[in-house]
Amino acid sequence: MVGGGIGGLAAALGLRLVGWEVTVVERARVLADVGAGISLHANGIRALDALGVGEAVRAASRPQYTGGTRTPGGGWLARMDGAALERELGTPIVGIPRAELHRLLRAALPAECLVVGAEAASADRTDSGRVRLALEDGALEADLVVAADGVGSRLRVRLFPDHPGPVYSGSTVLRAITGRPVALDTDFALTWGQGAEFGHIAFADNRAEWHAVLNSPPGVRHADALAVLRQRFAAWHDPIPGLLEATRPDAVLHHDIHELATPLPTFTVGRIALLGDAAHAMTPNLGQGACQALEDAATLAAALATELTVESALARYDAERRPRSQSVARAARQAGHMGQQLSHPLAVAVRNTALRLAPSRATVRAVLRHADWTAPSLS
Ligand SMILES: Cc1cc2nc3c(=O)[nH]c(=O)nc-3n(C[C@H](O)[C@H](O)[C@H](O)COP(=O)(O)OP(=O)(O)OC[C@H]3O[C@@H](n4cnc5c(N)ncnc54)[C@H](O)[C@@H]3O)c2cc1C
Question: Residue 335, SS3?
């Protein structure tokens, strides 16, 4: 397994469950995901159930029963009925700090599975049909290499030299977890202005993650990002100024959002499988990137458990995962264009009117479109 992110750790769990010996090679010296918070839809939670960690993740999460989409003045464009989602899918969306999700995935793996501070450079077929994984410092041989090395995947570049690779989405994101508990009226909210979004997800301990997404050229950075945001969002509705107030300046993360806009022709080359963002990095507008990585992990493990050869398992993995994840990625990009990125005042007004007039069930239906996925059994 190359990459100890959510995708790589989940795949390691799945492969171990179906009897494989696994080594996760992670280039970072310390295995701790630096993101802020993450929301998981039913499909991601079902995949975690199949991987044996669903209960632990649920226990550390906060169900997102109340929330929706708002205007900067605070008016509601659409509300989400988390209880209705729970009736349909068995769970509402849940929110959890990324570091906690990461910790729970790591805790379910024996420590000796994880090799940190090791960067993979390439993977090549050996004469015996296995795969040689070249590291910056040494090499490993394996029956299968899973490239879960994220949006900037080095292995993907080696396997698909003509693929254009990730592109800038046009949006930059600043985010953080508040330094203390905050009083919130809703578990989550998204507020759309012109070419700007501010959102929050409340956690079980009453802290919250917030994110501000802005149309921007890539590479713009601020000496004091929090001060810039306080000014930018000063006139937006509560609790936005309060969330920024409850945040330490050094807690703010700033990333430009890249995606794999040109879909890969296949997720497998020989005995190498791409998984998670390495295979289908998408914009975060549907909150589905990690959920799709978790689906990949459960599906790959199930295919390896039931197919007679590694080759046929990988063919099945590609057939099951590529169309679905690439269609979710397309939908996420579209959601970004119609949501956070929309900036022309007239277009924003038309969109907002359409959202206000939509039946209340439309929000639940929009989530069901991607979240209603059945996990394979790995037992
Ligand atoms: C702002 C934002 C918000 C998001 N919110 C959500 C959300 O709410 N819900 C959701 O489902 N998804 C969300 N996502 C998407 C989600 O974060 C990603 O899809 C997910 O983290 C991908 O996991 P991964 O393991 O594939 O990749 P990564 O998390 O990028 O992990 C890759 C790992 O590989 C390691 N690595 C890289 N190269 C090498 C190498 N050569 N050798 C060894 N190791 C290497 C890296 O250090 C890293 O640890 C969001 C994304 C963003 C940007």
Answer: helix
Q: Is residue 122 part of a domain?
A: yes
Ligand 1 atom nearest 289 alpha carbon: 19
Specify the DSSP element, H or E, that contains 63.
strand 62-63
Number of compact structural domains in the chain: 1
CB 32 within 8 A of CB 152: no
Tell me if 304 sits within 8 A of 15, measured CB to CB: yes
If you average pLDDT over residues 248-266, what whole number do you get?
Answer: 97
pLDDT at 32: 61
Q: How far is the centre of ligand 1, averaged over its atoms, from the C-alpha of 197 (Å)?
A: 21
What's the confidence (pLDDT) of residue 30? 81
Q: Which domain holds residue 329?
A: 6-64+91-164+261-338
- The answer to whether residue 127 scores a pLDDT higher than 80 is yes
277 lines ligand 1 (CB under 6 A): yes
Q: Distances from the Cα of 369 to the Cαs of 34, 45, 286, 354, 372, in angstroms? A: 29, 16, 11, 19, 6
CATH number, domain at 17?
3.50.50.60
Q: What is the pLDDT of residues 188-214, one digit of tens each?
A: 999 999 999 999 999 999 999 999 999
